[in-house]
Design brief:
Blueprint lengths: L26 H4 L12 H6 L2 H7 L9 E2 L2 E2 L2 H14 L7 H8 L3 E6 L19 H13 L2 E4 L4 H8 L5 E4 L4 E5 L11 E5 L5 E5 L6 H15 L6 E4 L4 E4 L8 H12 L5 E6 L2 E6 L5 H11 L8 E7 L5 H9 L3 E6 L10 E3 L2 H17 L2
Parallel strand pairs: 3-4, 3-13, 4-5, 13-14, 14-15
Antiparallel strand pairs: 1-2, 5-6, 6-8, 7-8, 9-10, 10-12, 11-12
The structure holds magnesium ion.
Magnesium ion binds next to loops.
Length: about 375
């Protein structure tokens, strides 16, 4: 990735009316003309644009019964499908020696998603805690390898949940990156600024969507308002993006919540929607995602040469696919998908659940301790 000043501004990725410049996002460009009012639902909108299908497919239960032409498959058939899927995405635990052989004389860098990867998915996102064992495993890998958490949550929230100072943190899908100034190379970039953390320590911040904060705040308040009568709906402000959780919303109201969010976004062409696990995520239409964040961090750390570096990214979500793609196409290392059901992915390998993630991280630590 070229981070020279000539390429400093992320380019708007989704369609924007032609009377709005696509070369940057000054306030006159990105602010909406008026606050949208709640409108009556036009059911065809969210059905025809695929939102509802995406909501239903983005959150598979742990052992979903898989349907085929003849009806539902029993759990034995489900297991057979899972094991045949594993031929395409082998277990990272069983492939451990292969990974280590490839890492020979290379510097390993670890990237970790948080929800569903380090912590189990739970009904209340505020209670998605890591186990003591998992925290110890993450602390272990961070002792030996540069380690970054890349989450859709706000950076402050994910730091609060992980609580380890030795990591790099990228919140809001990589739109809010903070790392110690001492660990990074000097980079000349419009959205790269020096700052201090809460303890007064010098840090580097990279915030390519900084200009969108007022808009996200406004949309967050609107989304809270338009979903307040839908039981179980929960809206979170992640600073550079906002999330509407529907994991506690009755299935029969999914169409309604999708329609309400859709209607709000119609008035904000500079915002777009992505689907997470039972969450609708609203974010700026800048060309920035977890994959770009991985590239940026590798470059910031002086580790973008794939001849000397092996990156490992572990994640469970659709938004992690951007990072898997970067590692696959750049020959940078291994994407590892966390899933207990078959899913198409750009990852190379898989782990079944957070317990296997913990075992994999512990294996890395043990291997390193034996080969210091
Ligand atoms: Mg996740």
């Amino acid at each position: 990735m070229d981070l020279s000043p000539a390429n400093a501004s992320p380019v708007l990725a989704d369609p924007v009316p032609m009377n709005q410049t696509r070369l940057g996002f000054h306030s006159s460009v990105v602010f909406p003309r008026s606050i949208p009012k709640k409108k009556s639902g036009k059911v065809d909108d969210v059905r025809s644009n695929g939102w509802l299908d995406a909501m239903q497919s983005s959150s598979p239960p742990r052992r979903r019964m898989v349907k085929d032409v003849g009806g539902e498959l029993d759990s034995d058939d489900s297991d057979r499908l899972y094991y045949s899927w594993k031929l395409k995405y082998p277990s990272a635990l069983k492939s451990f020696h292969h990974i280590i052989n490839r890492a020979n004389n290379k510097k390993i860098v670890i990237f970790l998603d948080y929800d569903g990867t380090l912590s189990p998915i739970v009904d209340d996102p505020n209670r998605a805690f890591m186990s003591v064992d998992m925290r110890s495993a993450v602390k272990g890998v961070a002792k030996y390898f540069p380690t970054a958490i890349i989450s859709g949550r706000s950076r402050d929230k994910v730091y609060e949940l992980v609580g380890l100072t030795e990591l790099f943190y990228a919140g809001s899908h990589g739109m809010d990156i903070m790392f110690p100034a001492k660990d990074t190379m000097s980079i000349n970039h419009t959205h790269y600024i020096r700052s201090t953390d809460k303890k007064g320590k010098e840090v580097n911040l990279f915030q390519p969507a900084r200009e969108f904060i007022p808009m996200i705040n406004k949309v967050f308040r609107i989304l809270v308002d338009v979903t307040k009568d839908i039981q179980g709906a929960f809206v979170e402000n992640h600073k550079f993006c906002t999330a509407v959780h529907y994991r506690n919303v009755d299935d029969k109201n999914w169409l309604l919540i999708a329609q309400r969010v859709h209607d709000v976004l119609k008035d904000y062409p500079c915002l777009r929607l992505t689907h997470g696990r039972k969450v609708l995520e609203v974010r700026p239409v800048i060309d920035w995602d977890k994959g770009k964040a991985v590239e940026f961090l590798l470059q910031s750390l002086g580790l973008s040469n794939s001849d000397n570096v092996l990156a490992i990214y572990i994640g469970d979500d659709r938004t992690d696919e951007d990072a898997f793609k970067v590692l696959r196409e750049g020959n940078h290392g291994y994407g590892i998908l966390v899933s207990s059901v078959p899913k198409e992915s750009k990852a190379f390998l898989s782990l079944r659940d957070t317990l296997e993630v913990k075992d994999f991280l512990k294996s890395l630590v043990s291997w390193k301790e034996q080969h210091k």
